[in-house]
Amino acid sequence: MKRLRTLFFFSAPIAILYLSPVAQMSNKLQFGAIKPNKPVTYVSDKVKFAGPVETKAERDARMKWWRDVRFGMFIHWGLYAVPAGEYKGQRSTRIGEWIMEWANIPRAEYEKFALQFNPVKFNAAEFVRIAKDAGMKYIVITSKHHDGFAMYDSKVSTYDIVDATPYHKDPIKALAAEAKKQGLKFCFYYSILDWHHPSQYVDAPGKDPSAGNRTTKMKPGGKEEYVAYMKGQLRELITTYDPGVLWFDGEWQDWWTEEDGQDLYRFVRALKPDIIINNRVGKGRQGMVGMSKTDREYAGDFGTPEQQIPANGLPGVDWESCMTMNTTWGFKFYDDQWKSSQTIIRNLIDIASKGGNYLLNVGPTAEGLIPQPSVERLAEVGKWMKVNGAAIYGTTASPFPTQLTFGRATSKPGRVYLHVFDWPADGNLRVPVWGKPVKRAYLLANPKTALKFNESSEAVSIQVPLKASDSIATVLVLETAN
Q1: Cα separation of the two ends of the chain
Q2: Which of 27, 261, 283, 355 could be stapled to 299 by a disulfide with Cβ–Cβ 3.0 to 4.6 Å?
Q3: How many domains does the chain have?
Q4: Of the candidates 391, 416, 431, which is a domain's last residue?
């Protein structure tokens, strides 16, 4: 039998909106937000990490939907959308969601942004439609970023969008329902680092102790309280919204250990055995490169390269590149350094050709709108995906040992998809052989018209039209014997 323990919290309220967990719960009981219940209990998990026991076949079944979808929307949205990258006349050259850190804003000051956060133009159906029309199959949204503000109706904190803002609604609930309605998987980002929780403080030259900082310190006895608080919120997120993925971040703190990550991984999988968890839950990530180290077993199901794409495929490794469309994750009103639609589409192809997923970010405004340049680019991606989605969804990495000079390749059993970036001027596309004879060749956009080809011991030469049907990437299909 699993040993249970009851968690009680005894910490004094601080600042304006923060209450200790017990005080927060008492406050919500007093005002009728929830009915009185028994003390919250959690399963004690002081056991050696081994992860939930599953066979390779069981793991493959759990990961299948995620491996098949290949393309998702990341949403960074929170209080940082209010200052939108500017504080007291100073504009940041850094990412918008870190404004509490770079502007050295104390908690009590940062909390005031909540009073200005009223996203009345938010439309969950429109958010999901934009993602779906772009060809995205899942959504990952920040439930709580480093600033500690919860974007959902939390019962263990009043520092959330329902209790602390004039909006008084739960956009996460609306998004989860709409994603289910439109057929997209709904997932969460959650930060282990929390600049708002009183267990953590800053000890750095020139920094306010309650401001944001890349690294924080933990007060004596604070870690147990904070982990319990964090598990309380994670329990809410999983049992209320049923996410497909938990995408952790902020794990680089000295006070967070791999054993803590393994403990949290077990906790989450116990609540929902088929959930997928990234490698930022523990200490395995190799910086922005994102892949897990190999010196020991680390918690997490997939690697997380950030703002970059691995040079080559990684056989047998699940990974996902997260990238922005401009230079920030959270909204900055003056950031107009947008990637082109061509770059975004070719990034998607490049990532799929190496066996990874592409998690592409949008940063909504404080009013609740996805910036128009993001909407326009996603619409362009959607046009390409409507024609060529079969060459992305459900594919595996390129069968070729080196990258193709003219573009990239993805594959399925019996098919290789050639994504041609540089169209041959002479109408002859040469493809190196890879050990399987070609039975038929055609354009994915025109499958009924076969293309002529010749196959030698070194290459397959395909006669293609003199002009590419798509200037960004024209896709050819080579059918082979299984």
Answers
A1: 49
A2: 261
A3: 2
A4: 391
Residues of the chain predicted below pLDDT 70: 1-52, 482
Q: What is the pLDDT of residues 370-425, one digit of tens each?
A: 999 999 999 999 999 999 999 999 999 999 999 999 999 999 999 999 999 999 99
Helix, strand, or coil (residue 371): coil
CATH at 95: 3.20.20.80
Phi-psi region of 32 (alpha: psi -120 to 50; beta: other; left: phi over 0): left
314 and 71 Cβ atoms separated by less than 8 Å: no
- Asked if residue 446 is part of any domain, the answer here is yes
pLDDT on residue 28: 34
Supply the pTM of this predicted model: 0.89
Burial 6-29 (b: 16+ CB within 10 A, else e): ebebebeeebebbbbbebbbeebe
Cα–Cα distance between 276 and 192 in angstroms, integer? 17
Residue 261 to residue 253: CA distance in whole angstroms: 12
Token pair for residue 434? Answer: 């890879």
pLDDT at 315: 82
pLDDT for position 51 = 61
Query: Is residue 17 one of the residues assigned to a domain?
Result: no
Give the domain extent around 106: 56-391
How is 249-305 classified by DSSP, letter by letter? E-TT-TT--HHHHHHHHHHHHHH-TT-EEBGGGTT-B-GGG-PBPSSS--S-SBB--
Specify the pLDDT at position 52.
Answer: 67
